[in-house]
Write a structure and sequence with these properties.
Oligomer: single chain
Strand content: under 5%
Distance between the termini: 181 Å
Number of strands: 0
Structural class: mainly alpha
Radius of gyration: 53 Å
Helix content: over 70%
Amino acid sequence: RTVKAIEAAIQAKQWPKVVQIVELQEASVASRYYLQIAQHYRAVKNYQLAEKYYLIAEAAQEAVDMYSEAGMMEEAYKIAVSCMSKEELVRVYGAHAKKLADEGKLREAERLYVAMDQPDPAINMYKKHRQYDHMIRLMALYHEELLVETHLHLAKELESEDHWRQAEQHYINAGDWKASINMYRAHNLWDDAYRVAKTHGGLNAANQVAYLWAKSLGGESAVKLLTKFGLLEAAVDYATDSFTFDFAFDIARVALKSKLPEIHLKYALYLEDEGKYAEAEDEFIKANRPKEAVLMHVHQQDWDAAQRVAEQHCPDSLADVFVGQARVAFERKNFQQAETFLLRAERPDLAAKYYKEANMWSDALRLVKEYLPHKLDEFQKEMSSQSGQDIQDLLGQAQSWEQNGEHSRAIMTYLSITVQNCTDHEVLKRSWSKAVELAVKFVPDKSLDVTALACDRLAHIGCYEEVSAILCEQDCNNW
């Protein structure tokens, strides 16, 4: 009776009743009718119920065919997974997805590719059809780690095709807004470069672009642009600080002549650092700073050039030249030449200082007596305070002067040994007596002064016999 009721309902096309009766039957009875029920719902395009009863009837392939015929490939694929091998799935549905793409049904093809867990073909499909927004959307979902690289790749590709605005957007999305500025600069699209810089880099970046923009124009056009942005003087400073001196001169000659000396000076310093001394000299002079040129040549020990510049442009700097030459002479122990240079520079004080540093106190004393008498007392106190003075060094130095025929120096060195720096009376007697002997023999015009000084010192330490001997010898020589 139940079977007859089902058959009657089918004949009468009362499908809800058929379903109601069949679902109450045991599997052995119901299984005969599920396929018919599924085919009915398929015919009336109620695909969801058709799928349900196909699967109950264990006819999954029928459900796959149904969805495929209806163009519902995602649904077909989901069921096909249970009844087809992976290779067959890829072959069948991959081909179908490609067919959809070729027909321009890109979103349907994407859904099928995604259902197959194959987003890469969908990404390439969108790239091929230049639908970059959808391409990026899928990259963000499935390959986020490659998103920046993808933006940069697309930006460069679009730039090569002169699609500036699209390229700019991808550069910015990649976090490389500077690349979009460089793109616009390379194609002389300065307005856009400035816009991007100001939007994404702020005022400083915008000012840098404005500077480069002006530099590309040069002359009066550059001045007008920089004036528009209020960057005229700042641009000159930036140009010199970045060693772009041609541009700095270009701007200054048109609109900021007062800055020219400053630019010449900075250019001179740059050339000096580069070892281009002749060019640096010319720039120092144009900057009205000839003394800097003199000092540069002094530093390089180019004495002829230093003296030439000083004589032509700043005579007051001649002393600096002589002082420089003297310093080098002292370092080379050419004391007489060094002293000559310092006297030409009218710096006997510096000569005395160098002698003191070289432990040549007798020469220092000579200079102080002759050129700095007002400092004699101070110097003698300093000389006396040298508790660490090595008498043997002084004696050796005096003997060296004597052997070299420098008798005046030898005399002064012997006389520099005093009771303040030596307590050995024998050394004192020999030194002072030697000074008298040398004066009498080789420097007769100073012999009386040296004799008087030596005798006074000898008497002061109680050496009266030595005083008498010296005076007697002097009387005999005179007679």
